[in-house]
Amino acid sequence: MAALPHPLHVDLERARYLVSPAGRAALAAIPLDAGRDDPNRLVSTLRRLHPPARASALAEQATLRARAAGRFGRDYGLLLTAPGLEMMTHPLVAERRARRLARTGMPVADLTCGLGGDLAACAAHGTEVAGVEIDPPTALLAKANVPAASIVTGDAARPPLRLDGLALILDPARRTAARRTFDPDAFSPSWETCLDLLREAPTGVLKAPPGLDRERVPPWTEMEAVQLGTGMREVTLWAGAGATAGLRRAVLLPAGAELTSAAPEIPERPVPVGRYVFDPESCVTRAGLVRHLGHRLGARLLDSQVAYLTGSLPAFDPLAATFEVLEVVPFSVRRLKDFLASRPWRPHEIRRRAFPVEPDELRRLLGRLTGDPVTLLCTTVGGNRVVMIVRRLSPGPGAPGA
Ligand SMILES: C[S@@+](CC[C@H](N)C(=O)[O-])C[C@H]1O[C@@H](n2cnc3c(N)ncnc32)[C@H](O)[C@@H]1O
């Protein structure tokens, strides 16, 4: 995607124009495809029809709208800012959250509503909605995006509305791009403020980054690890009515497959590799539910420290990829290469768990091979590096070409 033209910042004046009837009409006249054009060329075209500041606001909207349609699979017709779109909850994730909140029967207050991604999903469920947003231009756009919501500009840490009887959504902004290290001070409002608000609410949900450490999950919350397609989207903490303290849940969207820590689990003790191997989806490992999934699949662990499961019967579950084992070889590049060439087998997909070599690096080391496509599952079993040469039986979200 080409860079957007400057100035990028959607200030209050720009937001006022975009939500005005004139701005709405001008934007409606720009086809969605135009937003995929070179932004500078688009501004030049629009300048023939509009004053420079408006042309630049419209060009930015058109570009962001096309970007959002690419990311979300369709155009939701929202007014956007670049950071607001970056932070917006994916509509399929927001829809599930909204459905769960609707079951509480309570009106919802989103205390960090941004451009209104979560609010729009709640409103679509017929839930009464209010939003709080600290940034005035963003609040103005949110009101246009979710006309049914009452939106207040203010600070969630000092909520400008009475919260009693309301279900809360808290989706704090992250001030830094740091994804791996969790710094509570990098959140706005701060992580502690969010937890305090959640604890006080009759019911509510706090959205956190997918990498949130399990130690950070307070025991009075229910934790969900939410995956969409192949990507982990978020860890969410639920509290109050409708939430079960201490429960962990893996959620895979759009399939809607779920597993919770209330399910039975298999013992930790590993077994030798059987005829089938199962590779759990990320939401399962993030929620710490590999052994629970093992029970559901009729499978056992290969190694107590590694998430691969194995069994003598095939099982098909959206929460795991299923493979039939063809061979298991101790790992050395030379031996693996000779072995594959002798069959002949061509690694179509390479996965790893507890294994030091990156799949791309291993592919490079193996060089060009021809033959039937197979999957390599590279791992460590009982301290020894092994490669399981397997055939994929389930399509699954991570299947090559899926
Ligand atoms: C991650 S975004 C929310 C996105 C939203 N869930 C959606 O789907 O569109 C967080 C928003 O919180 C706002 N924010 C940051 N600190 C805030 C505070 N103290 N009070 C209210 N809003 C705040 C930011 O301006 C940003 O728009």
Give an overview of the whole structure.
The protein has helices at 12-19, 21-28, 39-47, 52-72, 82-87, 91-102, 117-124, 136-145, 191-200, 282-286, 290-297, 333-342, 359-366; strands at residues 108-110, 129-133, 150-153, 167-170, 173-174, 187-188, 203-208, 222-228, 231-240, 248-253, 257-260, 276-280, 300-301, 309-311, 320-330, 345-352, 372-381, 384-392. The chain has 402 residues and is of the alpha/beta class. The protein has a 9-stranded mixed beta sheet, sandwiched between helices. Strands 13-14-12-15-18-17-16 form a 7-stranded mixed beta sheet. A two-stranded antiparallel ribbon has the order 5-6. β1, α7 and β2 (129-133) form a beta-alpha-beta unit. α1 (12-19) packs parallel to α8, α3 crosses α4 (52-72) and α6 packs across α7 (117-124). It is globular. Residues 87-89, 94, 112-118, 132-135, 138, 155-157, 171, 173, 188-189 line the site of S-adenosylmethionine.
